[in-house]
Structures are given as structure tokens and as C-alpha cells.
């Protein structure tokens, strides 16, 4: 009987995350690396669990902190898992999506805040697990620092695509509530303006340039996230999509917006900080809330911007301890062109997309270095490679550093990926006046976003993303 109760309790919670205490001294155990145990993680009985709730009326009334383990596409837990795909095929797919995302991101920003209806493509390599509604229904979401909306497919569906797990049925949730069109919950706080449906309820629409879209209502609902020590039930505004099309075949079940905006998940719970880290074995987690975020290491500035994106104060790139000496406008966030310049950290970018002038200068330096070493150059799609049987740790490879204000980040093996006998540069040329730093260059690095003081904390971790 006790076993049946435990199984039922885990199913109702729907989401198993691992709470990490705020003090660095207390992080010796780190977070779990065995994501195959996420659904089978044992919880204390309900009476022993502390709970926290966040209200839409006053998101700052309770400090909400929780952890969301990152589930990789190679895990059988992922809704995108395909045992027929190799790790190399998955990587190339996400590099391709990353390139599309970079292009669409520029186009969306160039149209101006509040006017663009276009959203940016999402890579599928990481998802998080949470529950929605009453009773809680388990689903997966793609965490995205480039989105300000939490949305998912909903029943009853006018037009939907297949997904794993089953779509959320709004009619079966006792806590589901539509938002009136003239409510401040509809008219304020979103990056893009909402519209009204025929029944005067708040309506959203997101479109992708490949023809995919999601349309539906903005509604109030309860999101549940759980850990071994606490359960958070969060009142959220989210997009419930009743009319959706996915032409690319990527079939996202949900998107969890993590922009620094009022209506993203972070803004709705009043989170003053968050952090994330993943290692080169694809383990990791997102830590949300100032009591949970890992604000460690050295810090640099986050620059304010109207979209709530994570723009950093970036100065230059070094190759073998010599800077490229790029003009300030190459990496600067220009006041005259604030939406299409600067350097951003983006959870949805698989690799770094570098301003074309900086990339050309970087490539020239690397080619000269490799020629001196007698290494032959080749191409792997849009990536540049050199014959290097010694692998990504070979000391003959040039040393690359990203130079921020107040710190320089040595990329080491994060600059390269081995393809058989070749080492390939994991930085690509971006044909716009914008640089997007991708996840590959940030493996085994904890990024802590202090949203209250607009600081980015950077700390190099051990290989398993633990201190």
C-alpha cells in the first residue's frame, strides 16, 4: 500500500527537480547526474514537504526558488529522443537550427520591439520537466532565454501537431481561467502586443518564419515544480495554443520563456536571479531564485535593453594571448542601433555566431597558426576544420579567449569539436552586426544572472558541472 501511495504521489507531482542550497559551502553534493531517475525520485510524504506558492497579484510576496534539471535529447526521457540518431547527427541538427535561430533573431530584433510577430526557432537538445493545471499534468518545455512567453499546446484543439507527452486538456483542469481582453494581465507586460478573440478573451499569436505558428488564449494556470525538499505551485500566465502548426517536424510540446521581462517565467515569480550550467556529458540544471541561483566566480556587466535579452559588456577576442583589436562598434551595444548590435548570451544557440568582421579576423589568425603547424584545412558544413589526430586537447591548437569587461574566459576544448581526425572550430560567421555566444562555448561553466544588479557571474566548473 505504501509503495502504491509513493508511486501515485510522484505521478501527481509530475516534476522532480533537485533543490540546491544557496550557500556555495553547502553544495558539496551538487545536483543529481542520473537523470534517468527523475521520475522515480522518492519524495517525503506531503505532510513533510514544505510548499511555496507565487501569486500573480504579488509575485514578490514569496521568494520562490527551485531547480529544473536539463534533460538532453540523447536521454530516453526526452520527448525528442530518437535511438536511431547518432550523437553527431543530433549535434549537426542543432547547429543547423542554431543558424536559423541566429538569422531569425536578427530579423525579429530589426523590426523593433512590440512590432514583430516572428519568434525564433528553438534547438531541441535540452528540455525541462514540469506540471501544469489541477490535477497536475506532466509536460516538457524548451527553456529559452530568447522568449518572454510560456506556451504549450492545449485541448480542445482546432489544429495541432503530434507531440510527446499528450497535450494539456484545459477543460479537465479546475484551476484554468481565461484572461479578459481588457485586463492589465493582457494589455501590459508582454514584449509583443496581445489581441482579442471573438469572445473578448486575451489572445496570443506567435509565428515562425518557416511557416510554423501557435495561436490561442492567454490564461491563468498553476505550474507545479517539485524537489526533494519542497514543492512550488506557481500561478502563471501562459499561452494555451488551440491552433498550432509545426512545419519543421520539431514538434515542441512547450516553450518556457526565460527573458528578463515581466511575463516570462522569471518575471512572473519575481525572480531576482537564476543560473544554469551543463557539462560536456550533457548533464546540468537551471537554478531559479536568488536563494538558489549560483552567483559564483567573477562578474561582468549585463547591459539593459528593451527586450530583456542577456546582452553582455564584451570587448575583444584573444588568440595566443594577442587581441584581435576589433573596433569598439564590432562588439559594442550601440545606442543608435540598440536592437541589432552587441553581444548576447543565448540558451537557444548551439554554438557561437560571431560578428562577420571579428570572425574574418579570427579565422585569419587561426589559418596562419595552423599553416605554421603544417595542418590541412577542410570544411564540415559551415564549420572550419584542420587535420589534428591529437584531438581537442592537443597543445598545438591555438588558444582562444573571450574578453569581457573585468575578465577573460579561456575557451580551451570548448572552442573545438573532434570529427574523426579533424578538429573543427565551433564558432561560425554571422553576417550581421551582432554576436551570439552559444552553449558549446559555455560547457562546464556556471552562468549566474543577477537580474537585480545586472551582473553576469562566470565560474568554471569541474567536468560534471559541480563546484
TrEMBL record:
<dbReference type="Pfam" id="PF14543">
    <property type="entry name" value="TAXi_N"/>
</dbReference>
<dbReference type="GO" id="GO:0005576">
    <property type="term" value="C:extracellular region"/>
</dbReference>
<keyword id="KW-0645">Protease</keyword>
<feature type="signal peptide">
    <location>
        <begin position="1"/>
        <end position="25"/>
    </location>
</feature>
<dbReference type="GO" id="GO:0008233">
    <property type="term" value="F:peptidase activity"/>
</dbReference>
<keyword id="KW-0378">Hydrolase</keyword>
<dbReference type="GO" id="GO:0006508">
    <property type="term" value="P:proteolysis"/>
</dbReference>
<dbReference type="InterPro" id="IPR032861">
    <property type="entry name" value="TAXi_N"/>
</dbReference>
<comment type="similarity">
    <text>Belongs to the peptidase A1 family.</text>
</comment>
<feature type="domain" description="Peptidase A1">
    <location>
        <begin position="126"/>
        <end position="459"/>
    </location>
</feature>
<dbReference type="InterPro" id="IPR032799">
    <property type="entry name" value="TAXi_C"/>
</dbReference>
<dbReference type="InterPro" id="IPR033121">
    <property type="entry name" value="PEPTIDASE_A1"/>
</dbReference>
<dbReference type="InterPro" id="IPR021109">
    <property type="entry name" value="Peptidase_aspartic_dom_sf"/>
</dbReference>
<dbReference type="InterPro" id="IPR051708">
    <property type="entry name" value="Plant_Aspart_Prot_A1"/>
</dbReference>
<protein>
    <recommendedName>
        <fullName>Peptidase A1 domain-containing protein</fullName>
    </recommendedName>
</protein>
<dbReference type="Pfam" id="PF14541">
    <property type="entry name" value="TAXi_C"/>
</dbReference>
<keyword id="KW-0732">Signal</keyword>
Amino acid at each position: 500500500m505504501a509503495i502504491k501511495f509513493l508511486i501515485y504521489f510522484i505521478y501527481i507531482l509530475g516534476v522532480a527537480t533537485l533543490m540546491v542550497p544557496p550557500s556555495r559551502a553547502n553544495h558539496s553534493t551538487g545536483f543529481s547526474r542520473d537523470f534517468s531517475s527523475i521520475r522515480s525520485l522518492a519524495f517525503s510524504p506531503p505532510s513533510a514537504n514544505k510548499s511555496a506558492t507565487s501569486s500573480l497579484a504579488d509575485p514578490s510576496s514569496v521568494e520562490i526558488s527551485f531547480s529544473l534539471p536539463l534533460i538532453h535529447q540523447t536521454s530516453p526521457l526526452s520527448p525528442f529522443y530518437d535511438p536511431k540518431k547518432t550523437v553527431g547527427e543530433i549535434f549537426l541538427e542543432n547547429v543547423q537550427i542554431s543558424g536559423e535561430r541566429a538569422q531569425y533573431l536578427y530579423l525579429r530584433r530589426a523590426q523593433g520591439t512590440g512590432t514583430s510577430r516572428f519568434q525564433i526557432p528553438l534547438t531541441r537538445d535540452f528540455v525541462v520537466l514540469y506540471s501544469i493545471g489541477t490535477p497536475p499534468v506532466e509536460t516538457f518545455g524548451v527553456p529559452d532565454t530568447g522568449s518572454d512567453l510560456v506556451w504549450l499546446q492545449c485541448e480542445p484543439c482546432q489544429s495541432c501537431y503530434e507531440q510527446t507527452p499528450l497535450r494539456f486538456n484545459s477543460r479537465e483542469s479546475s484551476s484554468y481561467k481565461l484572461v479578459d481582453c481588457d485586463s492589465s494581465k493582457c494589455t501590459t507586460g508582454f514584449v509583443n502586443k496581445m489581441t482579442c478573440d471573438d469572445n473578448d478573451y486575451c489572445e496570443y499569436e506567435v509565428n515562425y518564419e518557416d511557416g510554423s505558428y501557435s495561436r490561442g488564449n492567454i490564461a491563468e494556470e498553476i505550474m507545479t515544480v517539485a524537489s526533494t525538499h519542497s514543492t512550488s505551485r506557481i500561478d502563471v500566465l501562459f499561452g494555451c495554443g488551440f491552433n498550432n502548426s509545426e512545419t519543421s517536424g520539431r514538434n515542441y510540446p512547450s516553450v518556457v520563456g526565460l527573458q528578463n521581462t515581466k511575463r516570462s517565467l522569471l518575471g512572473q515569480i519575481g525572480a531576482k536571479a537564476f543560473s544554469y550550467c551543463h557539462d560536456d556529458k550533457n548533464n546540468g540544471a537551471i537554478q531559479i531564485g536568488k536563494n538558489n541561483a549560483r552567483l559564483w566566480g567573477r562578474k561582468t556587466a549585463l547591459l539593459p535593453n528593451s527586450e530583456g535579452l542577456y546582452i553582455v559588456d564584451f570587448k575583444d577576442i584573444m588568440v595566443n594571448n594577442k587581441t584581435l583589436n576589433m573596433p569598439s562598434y564590432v562588439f559594442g551595444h550601440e545606442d543608435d542601433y540598440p536592437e541589432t548590435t552587441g553581444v548576447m548570451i543565448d540558451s537557444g544557440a548551439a554554438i557561437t555566431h560571431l560578428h562577420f568582421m571579428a570572425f574574418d579576423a579570427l579565422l585569419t589568425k587561426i589559418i596562419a597558426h595552423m599553416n605554421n603547424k603544417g595542418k590541412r584545412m577542410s570544411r564540415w558544413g559551415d564549420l572550419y576544420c584542420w587535420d589534428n589526430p591529437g584531438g581537442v586537447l592537443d597543445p598545438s591548437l591555438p588558444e582562444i579567449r573571450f574578453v569581457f569587461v573585468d575578465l577573460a574566459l579561456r575557451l580551451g576544448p570548448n572552442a573545438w569539436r573532434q570529427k574523426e581526425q579533424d578538429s573543427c572550430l565551433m564558432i561560425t560567421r554571422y553576417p550581421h552586426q551582432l554576436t551570439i555566444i552559444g552553449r558549446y562555448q559555455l560547457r562546464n561553466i556556471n552562468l549566474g544572472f543577477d537580474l537585480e544588479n545586472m551582473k553576469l557571474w562566470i565560474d568554471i566548473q569541474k567536468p560534471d558541472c559541480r563546484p
